[in-house]
Structures are given as C-alpha cells and as structure tokens.
Amino acid sequence: MSEEKLLDAFGQIEEEFIEEADPDKKKIDIVKKRNSNWMTWAARAACAVLIIGIGAPLAWNVYLGRTMKGVEKAETENAAGAPEAIQDNAESDLSGIAGENQASGSEATDGSGNPWVAHFNEATDVLDSARRYIPGYFTEELSAEELAAMEPDMRRKWMKYSGHAGFDGEGNLEDVCLLVTTTVPENKIAITISENGFGRCYVLPEDAVASVCGDVEYMVSQWDNGEYVVLAADAVINSYSYAFTLTTTKQDLDQAKEDFAQTLECFAYYAEGKPNLSAITADAIPEWFDKDLTYREALEDPDYGAYMLPTIPKEFTAESIRRYKDQDFDYLSGLWTKGYDELLWKVYTISESDESRLTSVDATKNYDLSLYPIPRASSVPKELRQIVDNPIFYAEELTQDAVWARAYKTGETGDSDGWRMTFSVIYGDTVVEIRGKGVDPVWIYQQLVTLKVE
Fold first, then answer.
1. What is the Cβ-side half-sphere exposure of residue 441, based on CA atoms within 13 angstroms?
2. Other CB atoms closer than 10 Å to residue 44's CB: what's the count?
C-alpha cells in the first residue's frame, strides 16, 4: 500500500504531511477521497499496511478497516473468565516447545514431537488493498462461547483471545477478527477468518517456499518497511480462509517470529467441527441507511439540514450529496466541483475522538499554517499534527482571520491554483467540516457566519 493511501485511510493527515514520504510523487486528491469514508477497507483483501511513523496497533486498525472499539473490553472479559475447557487446555499447554530461531524461520514441534519450520519469505513489494463497500457493515464483540468456537485446541500459556465479528446490514456474517496476545507486551497477532477467501497482498519471490504444518499449508512472509517489520501468513483451514498479521519492531523480531510460528502451529490443529462460524450470529442489527439526496433534500434533513452549505459556490456542480448512518458513522455530506476546484461540506455530531481537535482561536499554534512551512510533516510537532491537520473552532469564536490562517496555496502545475483549506466549526454538538480547494476563504467564512443565525 502506498504512503498516500495509508494516510488517506487514517483520514487525519493533511496533504503536506505526505510530501515527506515522497516529495516527487503526485499527491492524491484527498478532498474527493475524504467524501468516500463510507467505504470500508475490505477484510477480504487481508493486507497489512505500511507504517509511517505510527504505532502498530493503530496501523492494524486501518488494515482491518473496521472499528476496534470494545476489543479491550473483550480482552478483559476473556482474561477474567475464559471457558473452562480452554482454561484446562492452557494448563496442559505445550509451553516447553519454545524452539530455536534459525535462518529459515522459527522451529517448533507439534504435540507428537514432529518438527515444523515456518519459512519467512522476504516480500519484494506490497500490493494495494482493494476497497469494498459493505452496506450497513457493523461489528459485535465475540462472547466467550463464540471465542471458544473459533479457537484451536492447541494453545500456549501466553495466549489470550479477543475479537469481533463483522456483519453486513442484513446481519449476515462477513468475517471474524481474532486478536491473540504474544510474549511481547503490546504485540498482538491479528487473525481474519472468512468463508469468501482473501487476496494475497505481498509480492513474493518466484521461489517462495510454503510452510506445511500437519495438513495445513501456510504461505508465510515478512515485509521490512524500514522502521517496522510485518509478518504475514495466509492459509485455508477446514475450508475457511485465514490471514495472520503481526507488526513488530526489529528489536523484537526474533521473538515475534517465534511467537508467530507457534501461533500458526496452534491453528493447524482444530478438533472435529471447529472452527464453527455458524455459532456466530448477530445479537441486533443497528440502524443504517445510505441515501443519495438532492441539494433541497439535504437542506431539509431533520438532523443536519440546518448546518448544510447555505449556498452553492458559483459554477460549482454537485458530485454527490449523501446522508449516511451505520454503527459508527452518522453524517450528511456534499461534494461540489468545478474543474480542479472542490468543496467538501460534511456535518456530523461530535464524538470523543474529535474532542482533541477543539481549539480556541487564541491558541494559534493549533491551527495557524503560517507557523508551519511545507512540508508540514517536518515542521509540525508530532503532538500537534492531528489538531493542525483539522482543527475544530467554536462557532462563537470564529473570525475571518482564523479562516485565513487555514488558507494556503501550493503553486502546483496542472492543478488548481486557488486557496486550499481544511478545518471544522462546532455549533453546540454539531460539527461542520470544510475541505476546500479553489474556494474563496472570505466566501467560506460568510457561509459559516450564516449558520450562526438560528
């Protein structure tokens, strides 16, 4: 996956931050892509992401393309009260088979003493993962009973399981994501399981070696992106497709390989009738809808219409106007374009994750782009990047000067030479997000001031 696509997936990084990764590469059109955040990363693509100066847990969330909320709660419940049969297994686990690290991989044994070796093929490239729209996609935490239906019977004492199931809007199971602890603190192996197959995301050499454990053939690989190493494997086990991923530091690589190989070994041995995806059913189907609206319908929306763009900029035409709601998102958005110029206007209710971006206009370090020359990946302090990327101003404090502080030009040839800006404004608990290119900052301010009148 390219650096641009990763940063776009996070939805938190301004265009200038991309330049540090590759200043000569043509930047993606972030404004237009941001309007497509209703599309989820397809779990079937099963691609681990490249990590660019971010932590592995966050990167894994992007790889799944699903919200991981509730996972820590599930981990706590699982640690406190795992099913009795599994507890018994843990006590009789094969923890003495630590194995030895070898040049070809990590060596362990199955319960009968037969050795198996995981061959970590050096990946030569990473393929872009595909996006797939799953209408109404939602997740539910796996209960202890559902985890028991998915876990293999072999396990190590250091293993603790958590996870969630993903369903489409009709309640049909799409995939299951398990998170398994390792011996390295904070490192977890993510295991995605589906009936529908996965596309391999790493380009492997022609002489790539498969790793066979019991009756299971794994294709195991490692990808070194410079700062982190991603270990990956895929296999078909009892007719289900599996994708394993672990992101680790180079310092922990040897131990991570050993843990990864032992986890693969455990999943090669299931009792008859397992895993049992039929045991996983949705408790409730959240409300969801995805509607294309006219501009008039958007203005009349009972939830967010009062905060929709009051007037359309001259000569701009609507690319899309959408009212969307599912388990995780609830918003009204519109995208208007004129040649290379664009304006995205999005309205939603503030969430806890947005609160860190709230700022007073007096705190200029949080939003004034004149303080941070391009490339901003170098000039913006790491702890301020999220808020500088997209600050949220209080409507009652908003000034024309604050809007101008968000405006800049790039001078790129073959693209709009107009003003660019990204910022948000909060009215009560309703956020209006603006991402513009080629739109007059004075005109934008006038639109926002109009919304202040209730």
1. 18
2. 20
Distance CA 70, CA 56 (A): 18
The count of other CB atoms within 10 Å of the CB of residue 443 is: 15
What is the C-alpha to C-alpha distance for residues 154 and 138, in angstroms, rounded to an integer?
A: 30
Question: Residue 172 is encoded by which pair of tokens?
Answer: 């049909």
From the list 26, 28, 55, 6, the residue with the least C-alpha distance to 382 is 55
Q: What distance, in Å, lies between the first and last C-alpha atoms of the chain?
A: 45
Domain with CATH 3.30.200.100 in the chain: 289-452
Q: Which amino acid is at 229?
A: V
- What kind of architecture, by CATH, is found in domain 289-452? 2-Layer Sandwich (3.30)
Q: What are the pLDDT tens digits along the chain (454 aa)?
A: 333 333 333 333 344 443 443 333 333 333 333 333 333 333 333 343 333 222 333 333 333 333 333 333 333 333 333 333 333 333 334 433 333 332 233 444 444 455 788 999 999 888 876 667 889 999 999 999 999 999 998 989 999 999 999 999 999 999 999 999 999 988 999 999 998 877 778 889 899 999 999 999 999 999 998 889 999 999 999 999 999 999 999 999 999 999 999 999 999 999 888 999 999 999 999 999 999 999 999 999 999 999 999 999 999 999 999 999 999 999 999 999 999 999 999 999 999 999 999 999 999 999 999 999 999 999 999 999 999 999 999 999 999 999 999 999 987 777 888 999 999 999 999 999 999 999 999 999 999 999 965 5
DSSP assignment string, 385-438: HHHHHS-EEEGGG--HHHHHTT-B----TTS--S-EEEEEEEETTEEEEEEEES
* Confidence (pTM): 0.68
d(CA 39, CA 433): 19
Q: How many CB atoms lie within 10 A of CB 302?
A: 6
8 Å CB contact between 42 and 133? no
